[in-house]
Amino acid sequence: MFLSLKFSVLAFALQLAGVLAVPALQPYDSLAGLTRDEVDAFARSVKVVGGQPIPKPIKDTSLKLVNDKKHPWKPLRAGDQRGPCPGLNALASHGWLPRSGVATPGEIITAVQNGYNMEWFVTYAAFLVNGNPLTNLLSIGGISWLTGHAPPAPALASGLNTHGTFEGDASLTRSDALLGDNHSFNATLFQQLVDISNKVGGGKYNVSAAAEMRFQRVQDSIARNPNFNFANPRFNTAFIEAVFPIVFFIDGRLQEKGVTGLDLEVMRGFFEDHRMPKDFHRRGTPTGASDDELDFVMAAHDYTPGFNNGSVNSFVPDPNFMGTQTELVCALYEKFVNSTVALYPNPHDQLRKALNKNLDNFFVAVKDETCVQIKPYN
Ligand code: HEM
Ligand SMILES: *[C@@H]1O[C@H](CO)[C@@H](O)[C@H](O)[C@H]1NC(C)=O
Ligand SMILES: *[C@@H]1O[C@H](CO)[C@@H](O)[C@H](O)[C@H]1NC(C)=O
Ligand SMILES: *[C@@H]1O[C@H](CO)[C@@H](O)[C@H](O)[C@H]1NC(C)=O
Ligand SMILES: *[C@@H]1O[C@H](CO)[C@@H](O)[C@H](O)[C@H]1NC(C)=O
Ligand SMILES: CC(=O)N[C@H]1CO[C@H](CO)[C@@H](O)[C@@H]1O
Q1: pLDDT digits over 21-49, tens only?
Q2: What crossing angle do the helices spanning 328-343 and 123-130 adopt, rounded to 10°?
Q3: Angle of CA points 302, 298, 241, to nearest 5°
Q4: What is the DSSP letter of 17?
Q5: Its pTM surpasses 0.70
Q6: Ligand 5: distance of its center to the CA of 14 in Å?
Q7: CA 138 to CA 105: how far, in whole Å?
């Protein structure tokens, strides 16, 4: 299984206005940055679910109708969360995930299998940096829409919209955080993708189009975003996300006929409206992501993990990209553990237990890759 870890240092701490006996947190807020007393008070105020076992893989992994009668697309209700991930957005809008857009890691793992036949445990990476380990809930978007009001200023929302954690730069259809809206569909960017697909994909989004779009987005960020970050983990996730649409959004029946290009209207449906096409059938075999497609996109142009060093067009390689590791996948794993420790330097009691459980769950995804487990809290 190819591993894609999506996370990085959470660049903020939840700060609460004033001294509150029970922090005014919502169940999907991050607990990062809270003091021990605040965490304890919060734990007393909610039902602590904590870390849970990884759900068993689904039994039936056949090619199957998933946009079915039980899972109709429905428009958003006030407060429903959607974010930067078209895959999860569509699962929520079809009811494979809670339509609220707030879910447990286990629900996400099962939903990506049911909806797309995606084998993917790295949900735990996202969960640890963007979710709430005590209530075991994660927002796939931001925070304010769910309740209609944000937590007291200067608190910041968590969820997948949070820039620099999981969400990153040079996305296909979302702006860099520094340049605009970092999580909503951007029609200008999608039009660039359409133009490229017309030019090199024969009007479809195939790997040639993915390769050129990926390159163009990186060049654009180098030229326009002084803070452009294309290091660990974004260097990895940006490539894998560019091929996800080909691997998971092409109807399984077409895939079996050898179709390798995604229809652009279907793609727009997923990316803009969180909508599966009528009759959508998932692919007929479980996969993490196709290494062949990934290799094609990565090999099409020269790329180096790095960042713009404070000004546009100042891209430099990241000297610490690999951390203390020699395998890419282990470096990503290590980065994730580091990010967790940066967020939770000294967790206690139920919080520590929940973090450890989720760290263990996450390690399951890299076990086969000769990485050594890092146990920051033992
Ligand atoms: C398993 C749990 C998943 C999590 C936690 C997750 C999370 C995310 C996040 C945070 C992003 C934003 C990255 C960025 O562009 O800055 C993203 C992007 C993306 N995700 Fe997911 N995702 C998951 C599963 C999926 C699935 C199942 C699919 C497809 C079936 C998918 C397809 C995509 C695509 C295509 C993008 C890129 C969007 C763009 O660049 O415009 N993801 N995902
Ligand atoms: C959408 O993308 C275009 C092209 O990069 C950019 O100029 C515009 O500001 C973006 N819009 C938002 C709302 O981010
Ligand atoms: C993508 O589609 C175009 C147009 O059909 C085709 O010329 C190109 O070879 C395809 N790319 C790959 C890698 O198959
Ligand atoms: C970034 O710029 C600073 C200041 O010019 C310099 O000291 C540093 O070495 C640069 N970083 C890299 C990775 O080149
Ligand atoms: C993780 O943290 C350790 C200890 O601070 C550091 O040596 C290592 O380089 C970091 N790894 C990554 C991938 O950032
Ligand atoms: C850092 C960050 O989260 N940036 C932005 C992401 O997009 C939303 C919506 O436009 C902004 O409010 C955030 O400031």
Answers
A1: 445 666 556 676 677 777 777 666 667 78
A2: 20
A3: 130
A4: S
A5: yes
A6: 24
A7: 7
Task: Kindly report, residue by residue over 144-202, the tens digit of the pLDDT.
Answer: 333 223 333 222 336 787 777 678 999 999 999 999 999 999 999 999 999 999 999 99
Give bridge partners of residue 317 from the DSSP assignment: 306
Our CA angle for 108, 339, 118, nearest 5°, is 25
Is 196 touching ligand 3 by the criterion CB < 6 Å?
no
Verify whether ligand 4 is closer than 6 Å to residue 311 (CB atom): no
Six-digit token string for 346: 């000294």
SS3 174: coil
CA 101 from centre of chain: 13
Give the 3-state secondary structure of residue 61.
coil
* Pocket residue to mutate for ligand 6, from 9, 10, 129, 163, most atoms within 8 A of Cβ: 163
Write out the DSSP string of 315-331.
Answer: EEE-TTTTTT-SSHHHH
CA distance 62 to 44: 44
CA 184 to centroid of ligand 2, rounded, Å: 10
Amino acid (1-letter code) at residue 148: G
Q: Which residues pair with 102 in a beta bridge?
A: 139
**Residues with C-beta less than 6 Å from any ligand 1 atom:** 6, 84-88, 108, 112, 116, 118, 120, 123, 126, 160, 166-168, 171-174, 241, 244-245, 248
Domains and CATH numbers, the chain: 25-145+160-365 (1.10.489.10)
